[in-house]
Amino acid sequence: MIGYLSLAAIGVAIYAGMHVAVALAGISFLGMWAITGKTALALNFVALAGTDSIAEYSFGVVPLFVLMGLAVSESGLGRDTFAIIARSMRGWRGGLGVATVLSNAVFAAITGISIASAAVFSRVAVPQMVAAGTSRTVAVGTVAGSSVLGMLIPPSLLLILFAILTDSSVGDLFLGGVGPGLVLALAFGVYLTLLGWVRPALFDGPRTMGGAEETTPTVLIVPVLGLAALVLGGIYGGVFTPTEAGAVGAAAALGLAFAMRRIGGAGAWRMAVQTGHITAAVCFLIVGASIYSRMLAFSGVPASVTQWAVASGIGPLGFLFLFALIVAAMGTILDSSSIMLVTVPLAFPITQELGIDVVHFGLVTVLAVEIGLLTPPLGLSVFVVQATLREEGVTLGEVFRGAAPFATIMAVVLCAVILVPEIATGLVGR
Prior knowledge:
- The chain is mainly alpha-helical.
- The protein has one domain (2-425).
- It has 20 helices and no strands.
- The relative contact order is 0.15.
- It is a multi-pass membrane protein.
- Residues 12-423 form the TRAP C4-dicarboxylate transport system permease DctM subunit domain.
- GO terms for molecular function: transmembrane transporter activity.
């Protein structure tokens, strides 16, 4: 009973505006105090759970991949990637939109953060698309929609977080993310191509590039592809662990940025500070989630819910659809990391009892969570795009309208991944 009451209290606290990590840790402490009746024991429990959650070697993967992504973003490699891909698709109706999707897919393979993709391509792709005659609503929607690939195509910060929460293999989750990521990118590209033929007025214009992007050397795409091949190839080839891959990738990205003279001392300091901020925020959330999950296990709630789920006969498919619906609904008011921290510790034991593969469950979770980045009122990618283009007069409503078709496509791909687990597990060999 105390466990269920704590769940309700956490929900109320989060929706009232309390920071998610504070709500998780604080109410978990009160729950342990109520269960044991001893303040010192509850405090020791919280301290031990908090220390254990970030003392593992695998947690080092977070700051390393964040640093690599920021180095790539600061060095302008995202801009180069878009210019080169867009130039090769001039004759394609809706080609700049498809180029934005492809550029986001490539950029995702070395960043792992959707927000970084949204910020970079808002500045790079939207002006070029609008100048070429693309409807501004379509342009901003394409950037917001395709930015979600950053959290799906490995390396992904959300997949790393899921691995930490479930004590599962980061490498397997990264491998599992390739299939859904490519399917989603393909679906986005097909939609934009069909839209270009069905409603050509949305893409009327010369469909040409301009300015410095027109003369960007094609060879500049080699560092981006090489960096992705180095990191992901090293993980999948068994050359190094995901944590070591983060270190190698960060070093290579920094080396490229300095060698190309794209980053100076001020840029390096800015990256270091941003890496610290992001890592500290993620660390704080993980500490709160660890305390919360241990309190839940101690209270018996996961076992109780698992018993109910098995007895109800809902089955693996029914549970995944129900879970995805709940997570997508939570995405309208909570950020991605917070949703995972609240739901995964409770749902994961159920999936194990129902025989759901951890990689399949992880990719379903990330896809459902990412839909929330595009839906009102708290579509984080939408807010980033609008904030970046505020001076150009872009409104939130405009970005939400443009992103709505992409959210729908994501829902369709999510259903496909649930019904066909091999999309996520095929490359893992399960």
